[in-house]
């Protein structure tokens, strides 16, 4: 099984096949619009704009599992991200990232790169870095600034 075996529904209700991302470096992030870390949307968008023409994609997955910090529906989340942070990277519908109802992509990501004490995602803005061959190569804590990941991304982009 690889990341390319999964599908997810984007924020506009369209099914996205992850095989469409073959050959690209991915940063997959669970997001929230009412979190202390929400300003990371700006850093993510800046990173995306800087690297988007280099076979790099950011995939955002809104999640309401942590202190109910993303209670809105898809349209509200999309509008918030666009109006407040100018988000143009791919956003998906809201998902669970932990537990029985976790989206299959998150079950896969956490099985590949667990956290410090266990595999569960600890909070909003946990980041998974996937290389151009679909391998989950790293996991970053919610507090890790997207700009701090740029060097790791650039190393992977050299191989593309």
From TrEMBL:
Keyword Oxidoreductase: yes
Catalytic residues, chain numbering: 35
GO molecular function annotations of the record: peroxidase activity
Thioredoxin domain location: 1-158
Family matches, as InterPro entries: Glutathione_peroxidase (IPR000889), GPX_AS (IPR029759), GPX_CS (IPR029760), Thioredoxin-like_sf (IPR036249), Thioredoxin_domain (IPR013766)
One GO biological process term: cellular response to oxidative stress
Protein name: Glutathione peroxidase
């Amino acid at each position: 099984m690889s990341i390319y075996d999964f599908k997810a529904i984007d924020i506009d209700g369209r099914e996205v096949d992850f095989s469409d991302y073959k050959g690209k470096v991915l940063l997959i992030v669970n997001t929230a619009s009412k979190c202390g870390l929400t300003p990371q949307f700006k850093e993510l968008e800046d990173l995306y704009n800087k690297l988007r023409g280099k076979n790099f994609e950011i995939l955002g997955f809104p999640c309401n599992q942590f202190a109910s910090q993303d209670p809105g529906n898809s349209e509200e989340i999309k509008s918030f991200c666009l109006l407040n942070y100018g988000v143009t990277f791919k956003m998906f519908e809201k998902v669970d990232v932990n537990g029985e109802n976790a989206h299959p992509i998150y079950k896969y990501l956490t099985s590949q790169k667990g956290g410090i004490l266990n595999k569960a995602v600890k909070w909003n803005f946990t980041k998974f870095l996937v290389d151009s061959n679909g391998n989950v190569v790293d996991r970053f804590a919610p507090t890790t600034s997207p700009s701090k990941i740029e060097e790791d991304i650039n190393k992977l982009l050299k191989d593309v």
